[in-house]
Design brief:
about 220 residues, globular
Length: about 220
């Protein structure tokens, strides 16, 4: 089992849920602490009967959604200077290269980066602050944030719960698989977006052609 289980398992079940929500909330605000590791550890405790997997997943989802929303507010108010200040404080997790990479992803994919980013460590930390800094429309952000938080908490929690004590050996492979799945989904979305754009342009061109012919006549 993972090392964090030792101290987490010594807490009452209700307090475990609170700790899971609090740690994931803090990570989602933009502070690089082990949120996913905490979720996995709590799910392993559920597999051994200490906690309930539904309670663990719910706590993780609530923490993710609220934390991202707070991060959004922080990024919206503080903007780039605040994120750069975080970068100086946490250079290994929040440095200029990380900021530039996350900003590029968000500018390209928008709300999809919020949803799928929940499964990627870098974007999981940056999602809220970055969306706020880029002035993403909050209702759209909240919808993607909530959907991503619930999907992530359920998927990671249930996977860890099912594989039990083997999590510390094979969970890394699951993370890689999840990352590959995210990459495939992003490519598919990109292709669909391009096809729709091309069809729209073709339709507009066909609509304009009769009007031009009429004007020439």
């Amino acid at each position: 089992m993972l090392g964090i289980d030792v101290w987490l398992g010594g807490l009452p079940p209700l307090l475990i849920y609170v700790v899971v929500a609090a740690i994931i909330l803090t990570e989602s605000m933009g502070i690089p602490i082990p949120g996913e590791l905490t979720l996995v550890s709590a799910a392993l405790l559920a597999a051994s009967g200490v906690t309930n997997i539904f309670g663990v997943a719910t706590a993780a989802a609530v923490g993710a959604i609220i934390g991202d929303s707070i991060g959004y507010y922080i990024g919206h108010r503080g903007g780039r200077p605040l994120l750069e200040r975080f970068g100086r404080r946490f250079p290994k997790h929040f440095g200029p290269p990380h900021l530039a990479r996350a900003e590029k992803v968000f500018q390209r994919w928008g709300v999809w980066a919020v949803f799928f980013g929940r499964f990627v460590a870098l974007l999981r930390i940056f999602a809220g602050p970055m969306a706020g800094m880029l002035r993403m429309h909050y209702p759209r952000f909240l919808a993607a944030n909530a959907a991503g938080g619930i999907a992530w908490a359920t998927t990671i929690g249930v996977v860890a719960y099912k594989i039990g004590d083997n999590a510390d050996r094979i969970f890394g492979r699951v993370s890689v698989a999840a990352l590959i799945a995210v990459g495939v989904a992003v490519v598919v979305l990109y292709v669909v977006r391009k096809v729709r754009k091309r069809r729209r342009e073709q339709t507009e061109a066909l609509d304009v052609a009769p009007a031009v012919e009429s004007a020439d006549v």
